[in-house]
Amino acid sequence: MTSNEEDRNGMAHNDEDFSELPFKLPDNLPPEARAQALKMYKMALERKRKPFTLKDFEIGKPLGRGKFGRVYLAREKQTHTIFALKTIFKSELQKGNMEHQVIREVEIHSRLNHPNIISLFTYFADDRRIFLVLEYAGKGELYKHLQSAPYKRFSESLSAKYIYEVADALHYCHLNKVIHRDIKPENILLTYDGRIKLSDFGWSVHTPSLKRKTMCGTLDYLPPEMVLNKPYNECVDNWCVGVLCYEFLVGVPPFESKTNDETFKKICAVDVRYPAFMSTGAKDLISKLLQKNPLNRLPLPQVLTHDWVISKKKTFKAD
């Protein structure tokens, strides 16, 4: 790509020389990855001297919209590194009494480092907004891909691949005493090479005991213990993996109903109807995750080694 040529993100790109890092990079590192490492190192040195401001970024197209703000494509001017810039309006946080939630989100998310979790690099603020500088996942929300898939559902091989990556990321979270509490296709992103990235840790909580009572998340994904207002632990995420797998394969969540009351009743009764086209292996995995008693839910390490996940994941072929 030549100087000032437009890249696939719709922004002009300038080539730039970088000095060597003060540590050795792997010899087999691809040129693109090496260049990115050099850029990030240079940016890190610069940030030691001064904090980010909005003037440090070129702002591109909107990527998504949430309750308190929007996410934009952004490029850091000095290194030309592409990010997703999440903007949160302070006035909206104050109206909803949600300031503490954003503080918690930053504290939790910034400490997580896993290949299937979106990286939160840093944050800054002005008089009106808070900005989170996030890793950019080029293919966007998984929900949009699900909606555009044939019959609005994924193949079993693709579903198994995604479930493996989600379960691996959540297992890492649980090892670090973090419960996500809002797993759903809208909060999962895809990279250009088709890897899962968990995002949106706004409802996440870090608790050494992994015991909570707050009801939160998305209606169709709520586990029975939340619906019944009982104390819960990290197994709420395991339940969500089961709901997610069902939605991947069927196109709708298993407990979706016309009214909230009907949905609640189905959740508490674990009233799951499996379509005839779903394989026995997929049913087995989902049924072992959608257990009313949290202690009976399949542990995430066993999701990773489940026969259906392993066999179907092996047959997946990237486009």
TrEMBL record:
Positions of the UniProt region annotated as Disordered: 1-25
Kinase in keyword set: yes
Broad class of where this protein is predominantly found: other
Record domain Protein kinase: where: 57-309
Annotated keywords: ATP-binding, Kinase, Nucleotide-binding, Serine/threonine-protein kinase, Transferase
Pfam families in the cross-refs: Pkinase
Chain residue numbers at which the record places covalent cross-link Glycyl lysine isopeptide (Lys-Gly) (interchain with G-Cter in SUMO2): 184
Entry annotation: catalytic residues: 182
EC class: transferase
SUPFAM superfamilies tied to this protein: Protein kinase-like (PK-like)
A GO cellular component annotation in the UniProt record: midbody
Catalytic reaction annotation: L-threonyl-[protein] + ATP = O-phospho-L-threonyl-[protein] + ADP + H(+); L-seryl-[protein] + ATP = O-phospho-L-seryl-[protein] + ADP + H(+)
Localization in the cell: Midbody
UniProt GO BP: chromatin organization; chromosome condensation; cytokinetic process; mitotic sister chromatid segregation
Enzyme Commission number, as recorded: 2.7.11.1
Compositionally biased region (Basic and acidic residues): 1-16
GO molecular function terms attached to this record: ATP binding; protein serine/threonine kinase activity
Family: Belongs to the protein kinase superfamily. Ser/Thr protein kinase family. Aurora subfamily.
The protein's name: Aurora kinase
Organism: Laodelphax striatellus (Small brown planthopper)
